[in-house]
Amino acid sequence: MRAFSLPGLGVGLLILVLAVLTLYPLGMLVYGSLHTTPPGETGDFSLAGYRALATSRNAAVLANTVGISLVKTILSMVLALGLAWIVARTDTPGRRTMEALIAIPFFIPPVLTATAWGMLATPRGGLINLGWTGLTGSSEPLVNIYSYGGVVWHMMQYTTPFLFLLFATAFKSMDPSLEESSRMAGASSWATFRRVTLSLMLPITTSAFILAFVRGVEAFESPMFFGTPARIHVLTTEIYNLIHHDTEPDYQAATALALFVMALLSLLIVWQWRILGSRSFLTVTGRGYQPRVTPLGRWRWFTFGIALAFIFVSVALPIGQLALGSFFKFFGFYRRDMLTLQHYRDVWESRLFFRALSNTLLLGFAGATATMLLGSLAAYVVVRTRLPVRRVLEVLAWLPWMMPGMVLAVGLLWAYALLPGPIALYGTRWALLIAYVTLSLPLAVRTMAGALSRISADLEECSRVHGATFWTTFRRILLSLSWPSFAVGWIFLFFIILRELSASILLYGPGSEVLSVVVMRLWSEGKAEEVSVIALIMLLFVFAFRFLEARIVKSHEVGSW
Amino acid sequence: MVKSPAVFILAGSLAQSSLEWPKVVDAAKREGKVVLYSALVGAPSTSRITEAFEVKYGIPVETLEARASELLERVRTEQASGRSLGDVSYNGSTATERQMHDSVFVPHGGLSSASRLAAPFTSDGTRLPAFVIHFGILVNTELVKPSEEPRSWKDLLLPRWKGQILADDVHPVGSGSLFFQATYGKLGREFHEKLAAQDPSFTRDPRGSQRRVARGEYPVFLPSSLAAMKELDGLPLKTVVPSEGVVFVLYQTAVFKNAPHPNAARLFMDFLLSDEAQAIYAEDGYGLVVEASQKNTSRPPLLGTSDLATMAEMARLAREIYK
């Protein structure tokens, strides 16, 4: 590992920016958890919020939450690793098309997939159960979406494509020479995959595990739609009740519970530090290579079948529902007399939609770009230096991910509405932009840390020996070589910003509406069909960005170095 | 505490008689816009009314919509920071009552249309009724014959409805708890104990639940807004008005303290009581609060609504009965 060369002032500034972005709103939440009233009101300091945590109900809810998230993370990891390996490292037919399709569910609004799965798998009249009872004559339904399994299944619709994108990128940017050495030393394909390939992927798999597990703990839509009716309670539904559904909003208890969750989840970072230790994961060196493709023979039709089954269940079914529903007066009532283009007309004629779209695209572009650049710099310090502050930076960058979104949103409101003096960010697009950068920073840092840890320091050294400055080296060597990860991270962030609702609803002002707020309005009014139209428009953006990404990544092909 | 200029303007307006109303209109036009904080998320009536107001007075209305709980915290934080963006609150009566306790409003100072309010609706000088949302029992007309429709809330206790009722969750604040509070006082604890024995399935997605009933997943859903029927036209659904009466939410408006456009706020509140605005509410299935407008619309009997003073106790009772 080479000596640190980012200017000292730069590191100081970076830490300051991250501290302001993350610690300031979190500090407001700590205050809220220790005070009988929210910031800005007279009250007393007390530990009542924390004392209220120690109940048997909370212990049961915590166990539920951890159990559900663990199961869905493990299942999604296995599925995503398999799918990523199939499309990135095998000769499975149609793998390029399948790569584009497998990631799609991540970009569909959860309320719509929840509606679709509700229609498919409700025990009373769900299409799957109707088919099952019709075929077998059984009086018992085959599946029940209102159950633990239903909650896990719906969560997996998002986690699997998310992890798939991370893993596929990592598989493709891996130098196969180590795997070849293993094979030449007599190891079987399975042993090579397990001992070499997966070991090399340890930084990204541990990061991905943490990202997915934490998101599972903080997931809201799946447990709300499918868990609550079955009396399955998780931490987010408890926090939601405390803030939105209690007789009196109890911010002290809600923030205390969220901070407790954050403290618990932070232990995962320590776990990752212990696992990764000081091992090296270099796979991108100065030598040229092409990722190795494993010929599967007849088995490639088996892998083709697995990928196709996933695409059918997780992509074709929900998108088919969206597309179909958007042309009928009512979602799920597919009769000829209900065919209509009215929902498209309504969206087309909505001034609010276009204003929100323009605000969202602006904030999405600016937010994703700024966050990826900031995240890349933070990842550089974390991965490429031995500075003691790198651990501080890493923790700072993780913190917003560890805090349930609906609570962090309140912290952001308190932080930016109560700014002292003449700084008037509240109600402007700047407040939204800062909130989006804060919320998406952890993913940017993790994506880039995983990518940078695979690049040999020799390349950087060469650049500097030839007289390049830090910034030139950073841009032309590190960002260029990690471009596939940068591009995938950018798309993730863009769509996370596009979907973000908790902070948006508290920080937007008249005129600065964003798409998620418009979708929430339409959904609240029962207009699932117009939400479907907007979701389809969003999917067009996904296809456009994925196409552009593929073109750009191809022009920066790692193997050409 | 130093009052902002906006408060002075409003305080000055308190002394204005109805003869001075044109001055309020002029001042409103000079202020140039009004910002509405609405908890009635996504309602088409809101945009139709704001457009009618813009046409009549040439004053644009900017609407910020969020759930009641989000608006509560947002407004509280705005007031604490002295950075008020909103002019008019547009929220249910219990949320508005809670905000009264937080002292986030100022008196509206007299409005030219306030005398048009029909009993039992009145203004206390700060809060002004605008319209009413009625809730009844939603029925799938393909699954439930007219002769078997529940005519009253108590009909839901008949054996045929056991395991057949989809209901908005009575535990958290929402239309389910509204139903519990409004009926507990009038129909008693025994009614709810028997209803709990019917094993209702709880949900927290009222809009999605209406569709589930339409698809035949359940034959009935409660409580369901009568105003929702306009959007559901074409589906095999009907909302029954129970003989005891509907449960209801009264929507109220009020001017925020430190409102940037206080006169435009008053003018907008006044406009909501006009025949023009009330006609829009009527078309969208809401109950009216103005006598003249009520004459040509159906007025279901009102059973009850929620009360901030008893909400905590009612929540405890709901947890006790519906375990």
Keywords:
heterodimer; A: 561 residues; mainly alpha; MetI-like fold; 25 helices; 0% strand; globular; disordered C terminus; B: 323 residues; alpha/beta; D-Maltodextrin-Binding Protein, domain 2; 2 domains; eleven-stranded mixed β-sheet; 11 helices; 38% helix; 19% strand; disordered N terminus
The CATH superfamily of the domain at 1-46 and 340-561 in chain A is known as MetI-like
Low-confidence parts of chain B: 1-17
The SSE string of chain A, one letter per element, is HHHHHHHHHHHHHHHHHHHHHHHHH
Largest sheet of chain B: 11 strands, mixed
Report a brief summary of the structure.
Chain A contains 25 helices and no strands. With 561 residues, chain A is an all-alpha fold.
Can you tell me about this structure?
The complex is a heterodimer of chains A (561) and B (323). Chain A is mainly alpha-helical and 561 residues long. Chain A has a domain at 1-46 and 340-561: MetI-like (MetI-like fold). Helices cover 72% and strands 0% of the residues of chain A. Chain A has helices at 8-34, 48-51, 56-89, 95-102, 110-121, 127-136, 148-172, 177-184, 189-200, 202-218, 221-227, 235-245, 251-276, 299-326, 342-348, 351-384, 389-402, 405-417, 429-452, 457-465, 470-481, 483-499, 502-507, 515-524, 528-555. Chain B is globular and about 65 Å long. Chain B has helices spanning 5-13, 21-31, 44-57, 68-81, 93-101, 175-197, 206-214, 262-272, 275-283, 291-294, 311-321, and strands at 34-38, 61-65, 88-92, 105-106, 128-140, 165-168, 201-203, 220-225, 237-240, 246-256, 302-304. By secondary structure, chain B is an alpha/beta fold. The model of chain B is unreliable at 1-17 (pLDDT under 50). Chain B has two domains: 5-132 and 249-294, Periplasmic binding protein-like II (D-Maltodextrin-Binding Protein, domain 2, 3-Layer(aba) Sandwich); 133-247 and 302-321, Periplasmic binding protein-like II (D-Maltodextrin-Binding Protein, domain 2, 3-Layer(aba) Sandwich), CATH 3.40.190. Chain B is built from eleven helices and eleven strands. The interface between A and B is large, with 54 and 53 residues.
